[in-house]
Specification:
486 residues, signal, mainly alpha
Length: 486
């Protein structure tokens, strides 16, 4: 099964920036858009356990956490927390207002983007979803209507789970449930409930980070194309060293958000720096997609609460650091590998086996929208539609001839579609080849062009026009209408 899913690779930015903050590295949680072969079996856990770089990362993290806990027990640790409290007091006293503004602003932002559920990468052709997002934003204005907004968030996640692969959306689900739970608790009149409102946000982000980090152990091959496209992300660290250590860093930084006050606040500060640094190379969509996570990280860094409500004795004890980390690794790894087997069975091939049989870049299915994905035509799978113009096919053909060929094909199909008797259907049947013509021209630009601005524009055209083609094809399918010629 091929499923178009947004996954989140660890970045070299994280390793470099956090290296300056602590002995352990952290990993930014950056979305990128690629249709992975998601039913491929995860690599055996023994592969990770035999990797010396995995254990190197674990040792560095344990040293950092234990050292921080030792400082936290002293007067210096209390002084550090008091200083953080004084600096963050202005926001702490208005923290609920901050959270509500960011959550409402996020839903206004994705309403403006349109065609998505709850992140820019979970797309939907349903226009009414955008208006529901606007209602969710409006409901956050009043505490009386916040539970309704919470219900709306859960409803949209249910729709996303219906349309997308559930296993690979579990980290997103944790975040959505946490935000909805915050809205319910914040609107409550019971103080014994309200005191947990920031805590549920912390757990939501921590679970999301720890769950998604396991992809770097289960599917390290998924990150090879990104590393090849953007080698600066690793800052020169060898790929097979970087990926497992980035996975350890992301998992442990998420784990750190559940620890004692100084550990969790330092972890949150490091993550906030990392997420902001990732916005520049990945753009504004990355900022929108991470807005809720970044806001919750700010909440964790600002939170003055010193009380630990769950398992406080083990979390405060030094021995609780290795015990807690080992327990978290066992629980999450067991759940990840076990649930994958439950969803897909145990007879599927691993990514290493797929790549050995189908090519070095067969990490996911071919897609015009994803320039960092596999570009070799032999990686196309059965049933994928072969684009009319590709860089490889351009060869010795002149650019002018390539453009002319693409326009002739577009014109004939467009005119055939426009002859339909229903004006609505005619519009869609005409626009699909029109958009495909724009994609073909953009492909030629990527094959023959050299101007960086035009290359970026071509990639944007491909992504936007293909999204609209998919929406129009879905509209036709819903009405049982076929394109001319089948």
């Amino acid at each position: 099964m091929l499923s178009s899913l947004p996954r989140k690779p660890g970045l070299g930015i994280a390793l470099a920036l956090t290296g300056a903050l602590a002995p352990a590295a952290a990993s930014a949680h950056v979305k990128w858009f690629a249709p992975y072969i998601v039913d491929a079996a995860p690599a055996p856990i023994t592969r990770t356990l035999a990797d010396p770089w995995f254990w190197t990362g674990i040792v560095l993290v344990l040293v950092f956490f234990i050292a921080t806990r030792l400082v936290e027990r002293t007067a210096a640790g209390e002084t550090a927390l008091d200083a953080m409290d004084r600096v963050t007091n202005p926001l702490w006293f208005r923290l609920d207002d901050f959270v509500r503004i960011v959550v409402a602003g996020f839903f206004v932002a994705i309403f403006s983007v349109g065609g998505v559920y709850l992140t820019p990468d979970l797309k939907t052709p349903a226009e009414w979803v955008s208006w529901l997002q606007l209602l969710i934003a409006a409901g956050i204005v009043s505490r009386k209507t916040m539970p309704l907004s919470a219900a709306g968030i859960i409803f949209l996640w249910v729709l996303a789970l219906r349309d997308y692969d559930p296993f690979h959306l579990l980290d997103y689900l944790a975040l959505g449930v946490a935000v909805a739970a915050y809205l319910v608790l914040e609107s409550s009149e019971r103080e014994d409930w309200r005191k947990h409102r920031f805590e549920v946000l912390r757990w939501g982000v921590a679970i999301a980070l720890m769950w998604s980090s396991l992809e770097k152990f289960a599917y390290p091959e998924w990150f090879y194309p990104l590393v090849e496209e953007k080698p600066f992300l690793t800052f020169g660290i060898p790929r097979d060293m970087f990926i497992p250590m980035a996975g350890v860093a992301e998992f442990t930084m998420g784990f750190g958000l559940l620890a004692t006050p100084l550990v969790r606040r330092l972890s949150a500060i490091a993550l906030f720096v990392i997420f902001n640094a990732a916005v520049y190379p990945f753009g504004r969509v990355d900022l929108i997609g991470h807005a809720l996570i970044m806001a919750i990280i700010v909440v964790i860094a600002v939170d003055h609460t010193r009380e630990l409500h769950f398992w406080s004795w083990i979390r405060r004890a030094l021995v609780g650091v290795p015990i807690g980390l080992a327990g978290a690794l066992v629980i999450f790894a067991t759940a990840y590998w076990g649930l994958h087997a439950a969803f897909y069975g145990t007879d599927t091939r691993t990514m290493a086996e797929i790549m050995a049989e189908e090519g070095e870049m067969a990490t996911h299915s071919y897609s015009l929208e994803h320039p960092h994905g596999p570009q070799a035509m032999e990686t196309l799978r059965e049933g994928d539609e072969l684009p009319p113009i590709t860089p490889a096919e351009l060869g010795d053909t002149s650019v002018a001839d390539a453009y002319a060929q693409s326009m002739m094909g577009m014109h004939d199909e467009m005119m055939a579609g426009l002859r339909h008797e229903d004006p609505d259907v005619a519009f869609v049947l005409g626009m699909i080849p029109h958009h495909q013509g724009a994609i073909d021209m953009a492909r030629i630009q990527l094959a023959a062009g050299t101007d960086a601005e035009n290359m970026g524009l071509a990639r944007h055209i491909i992504a936007e026009q293909q999204q609209e083609i998919d929406a129009m094809r879905a509209w036709l399918d819903a009405r049982g209408i076929e394109m001319p010629g089948g």
